[in-house]
Design brief:
alpha/beta, 3-stranded mixed β-sheet, 13 strands
């Protein structure tokens, strides 16, 4: 056995010993309030399908119709021969939704974040990231070659201290999640925008978990706060969460988008998402506009869950998003509670390091507009039994 193979073996053994070993679930159903896993029907509270669109009949039919015309794959990258009329229309619609002049599709949120960060900054520049940023944002910062600084979570004073030390003549990029994927709280975007203006930095917001959930017609966290393109020049959003499909986009002014077309390696050298996926996403945008009850229902469920959880003295974290974590601390205990919930027909994922910092393992409850009020009651009852 080679040294590399021995190393892998040791790392896997260590993961198991620390209750950090990860295993996949195999589904036999579409996404929804209930799913089938290994023959069991489970009430699901761990999907990012926040508006319940992943199996919406209109999206399904739009994708079927597009397959008939465009086939199953795009065949190439956007810059070769993979950019269809449906892709182009979707980019225009996403730009309009977010109030920006242009948008650009990427194959995933991870690819979008790598592409935009490595295009904007380079060696000699400075990038500042919240400590709880998504892995794709952190990886983009490390790959860029820029001076990489991390500041305490949502701590504008700590960020300002770092900005003050940065040379005035270098490019400065501040990167945050608009809604944090594991805590569910929001970044202080208004304050961050003010700091960036003061220190001539560019602000980038990853709104993967805010798009569809916040803002007029689900336009996202930035729109919800009324921030302009000048204040938040770089906006990333994903299509595989509230919009129920797959892929991602970056929205901004013409100069930003054209620069990504020319220089973003994760855009240039990646096959475009299937045209049928773009068609389904266009249908999702229609549903987002026409069925605004989904957003309202989701926020009502969030309020009901928080009230019920507090009554049962469950340790929920501060969040007004669809992500409602319960802090456990110990990874093994989080895994045990998750397994007990599953025995009661409720699926909630245990989130453990390295996804979250050591000592902050949690149950990540994700709510959806597909849920009913009775589902929330069943969830809280099960959580209370397993917890106490």
């Amino acid at each position: 056995m080679s040294i590399l193979q021995q190393r892998l073996q040791a790392r896997l053994a260590e993961r198991r010993e620390q209750s950090l070993y990860r295993q996949r679930l195999t589904l036999d159903s579409a996404q929804g309030r209930t799913i089938r896993v290994n023959g069991d029907s489970l009430l699901c509270f761990c999907s990012n399908d926040y508006l319940g669109l992943a199996n919406h009949p209109r999206l399904v039919q739009a994708q079927i119709d597009a397959v008939q015309q465009y086939g199953t794959g795009s065949g190439a990258s956007h810059l070769v021969v993979g950019h269809s009329r449906l892709h182009h229309e979707l980019e225009d619609r996403l730009a309009a939704l977010t109030g920006r002049s242009r948008a650009l599709l990427f194959s995933s949120g991870y690819m979008a974040n790598l592409g935009v960060i490595t295009t904007l900054v380079a060696r000699g520049d400075s990038i500042f990231e919240d400590r709880l940023n998504h892995a794709s944002l952190l990886d983009g910062g490390l790959l860029s070659g820029a001076r990489f600084k991390r500041f305490a979570h949502n701590d504008c004073a700590a960020l300002e201290a770092q900005l003050q030390k940065a040379p005035a003549e270098v490019g400065k990029l501040v990167v945050v999640d608009a809604v944090y994927s594991m805590d569910g709280d929001r970044a202080p975007l208004v304050e961050l925008a003010h700091l960036c203006e003061q220190y001539q930095a560019t602000l980038m917001a990853d709104d993967a978990h805010g798009l569809g959930v916040f803002g007029p017609e689900g336009a996202g966290t930035v729109a919800d706060l009324g921030l302009s393109v000048r204040q938040v020049p770089v906006l990333m959003g994903t299509l595989g969460k509230a919009l129920g499909t797959a892929g991602a986009f970056v929205a901004g002014d013409d100069e930003l988008i054209e620069s990504l077309v020319q220089f973003a390696r994760s855009y240039i050298y990646t096959t475009a998402i299937p045209p049928a996926t773009a068609a389904a996403t266009l249908a999702a945008l229609d549903v987002l506009r026409e069925e605004n009850w989904r957003q309202q229902h989701l926020h009502r469920l969030i309020s009901i869950f928080q009230s019920s959880a507090r009554q049962r003295e469950l340790p929920i974290m501060a969040s007004d998003s669809a992500i409602q974590p319960l802090l456990v601390g110990d990874a093994g205990k989080a895994l045990q509670i998750s397994e007990r919930l599953r025995e009661q027909g409720v699926l909630v994922t245990a989130i453990r390091p390295p996804t979250v910092p050591a000592g902050t393992a949690r149950l990540r409850v994700a709510l959806s507009a597909a849920h009913q009020e009775s589902d929330i009651e069943q969830l809280v009852d099960a959580l209370s039994r397993c917890w106490h």
